[in-house]
Automatic annotation (TrEMBL):
<dbReference type="GO" id="GO:0043005">
    <property type="term" value="C:neuron projection"/>
</dbReference>
<keyword id="KW-0771">Synaptosome</keyword>
<keyword id="KW-0812">Transmembrane</keyword>
<feature type="transmembrane region" description="Helical">
    <location>
        <begin position="135"/>
        <end position="156"/>
    </location>
</feature>
<comment type="similarity">
    <text>Belongs to the synaptophysin/synaptobrevin family.</text>
</comment>
<keyword id="KW-0597">Phosphoprotein</keyword>
<dbReference type="InterPro" id="IPR008253">
    <property type="entry name" value="Marvel"/>
</dbReference>
<dbReference type="GO" id="GO:0030672">
    <property type="term" value="C:synaptic vesicle membrane"/>
</dbReference>
<feature type="domain" description="MARVEL">
    <location>
        <begin position="15"/>
        <end position="222"/>
    </location>
</feature>
<feature type="transmembrane region" description="Helical">
    <location>
        <begin position="196"/>
        <end position="218"/>
    </location>
</feature>
<keyword id="KW-0677">Repeat</keyword>
<keyword id="KW-1133">Transmembrane helix</keyword>
<keyword id="KW-0325">Glycoprotein</keyword>
<feature type="region of interest" description="Disordered">
    <location>
        <begin position="229"/>
        <end position="271"/>
    </location>
</feature>
<keyword id="KW-0106">Calcium</keyword>
<dbReference type="Pfam" id="PF01284">
    <property type="entry name" value="MARVEL"/>
</dbReference>
<keyword id="KW-0968">Cytoplasmic vesicle</keyword>
Length: 271
């Protein structure tokens, strides 16, 4: 407990009030939401097959699927309406690559954000020493920004395909009994996809956060510092001694002698 108190006392938590630390904390939180909403998903939909012979009907065919969405391994049993055993059918598609890629990026972003926050709070001086820390941080932030773009776009496309493959209206077309006249096949319950839609939203929100944080991390590198220096102040010009000098006006010598003559003093022009 004493060690924890010492670490807390020595931490520079004020860095969390500036954009560098505050945005990194948001990245940590949003990464958790991104990979958890996708990686913890499990869904289910229901269909019903009503045969001519009511005894062979199955009015509640449940199909369950979950992350990582290897749908070609998900099967269900449907009646044939011919008096024989039910037929086993499989869903179509394998969308595990885009889903697992998205979750992996989310987990690594979560771990890196947590590590970066620890450095900001407990080793900020070493982080800024020789600009090595900011340069590494900037490079990693660039990589994660690109990865969030790729993974979010890939998972958005994968989710669209998952929705199409788990649409009960399309799945009933796989059941042979539904093609026979007199049998009725219909959907009973659609899968709830709100959690997966949220995961895509969090993916693109992470893209915005990491992309926006590039500027604040780049400022820490000091590369732009020489270009942000204020120009030296200009020296003020001394004030002119008289109105004539200020206007650049010089009086004619003869006019000066005329004034002296009026005062009773001889001048050269009148000689």
């Amino acid at each position: 407990m004493d060690i924890v108190n010492q670490l807390v006392a020595g931490g520079q938590f004020r860095v969390l009030k500036v954009p560098l630390g505050f945005i990194k904390a948001l990245e940590w939180i949003f990464a958790i939401f991104a990979f958890s909403t996708c990686g913890s998903y499990s869904g289910m939909f229901k269909m019903s097959v009503e045969c001519k012979n009511r005894t062979e009907s199955d009015l509640s065919i449940e199909v369950e699927f979950e992350y990582p969405f290897r749908l070609h391994q998900v099967y269900f049993d449907a009646p044939t309406c011919k008096g024989g055993p039910p037929e086993r059918l499989f869903l179509v598609g394998d969308y595990s690559s885009s889903a697992e890629f998205f979750v992996t990026i989310g987990v690594f972003a979560f771990l890196y954000s947590m590590a970066a926050l620890s450095v900001y709070v407990f080793a900020l001086e070493k982080y800024r020493e020789n600009n090595k820390g900011p340069l590494i941080d900037f490079g990693v932030t660039c990589v994660f920004t690109f990865m969030w773009l790729v993974s979010s776009a890939a998972w958005a496309k994968g989710l669209s395909d998952v929705k199409a493959s788990t649409d009960p209206e399309k799945v009933v077309d796989l059941i042979s009994a539904c093609d026979e006249e007199g049998n009725r096949c219909r959907e009973v319950h659609d899968p709830v996809m709100s959690g997966l839609n949220t995961s895509v939203c969090f993916g693109f929100m992470n893209l915005v956060l990491w992309g926006g944080n590039l500027w604040f991390v780049f400022k820490e590198t000091g590369i732009i510092a020489p270009f942000m220096r204020a120009p030296p102040p200009q020296e003020k010009q001394p004030a002119p001694d008289s109105y004539g000098q200020q206007a650049g006006y010089e009086q004619d010598p003869c006019e000066e002698e005329e004034e002296e003559r009026v005062r009773g003093e001889p001048g050269e022009c009148g000689a």
